[in-house]
Amino acid sequence: MTRREAAMILGLPATAKPNRIKEAHKRIMIVNHPDRGGSPYLASKINEAKDLLESSKS
């Protein structure tokens, strides 16, 4: 997954700040969490996108 793809998954610009990444991740996971009827595959991709964007900010 590229940084651009990760940003698109979270609905953010590729230059988003860490606090925006965290907020977007939380908002999207509330709807897509497997415990609430969401897809485990989508949840893993959302988490992967968050991790990639956060790691590239360090």
TrEMBL record:
Example GO BP: protein import into mitochondrial matrix
Record bears the keyword Transmembrane helix: yes
One Gene Ontology molecular-function label: ATPase activator activity
Main location: mitochondrion
Keywords attached to this entry: Membrane, Mitochondrion, Mitochondrion inner membrane, Transmembrane, Transmembrane helix
Organism domain of life: Eukaryota
Physiological role: Probable component of the PAM complex, a complex required for the translocation of transit peptide-containing proteins from the inner membrane into the mitochondrial matrix in an ATP-dependent manner. May act as a co-chaperone that stimulate the ATP-dependent activity.
Family: Belongs to the TIM14 family.
Name the UniProt record assigns to this protein: DnaJ homolog subfamily C member 21
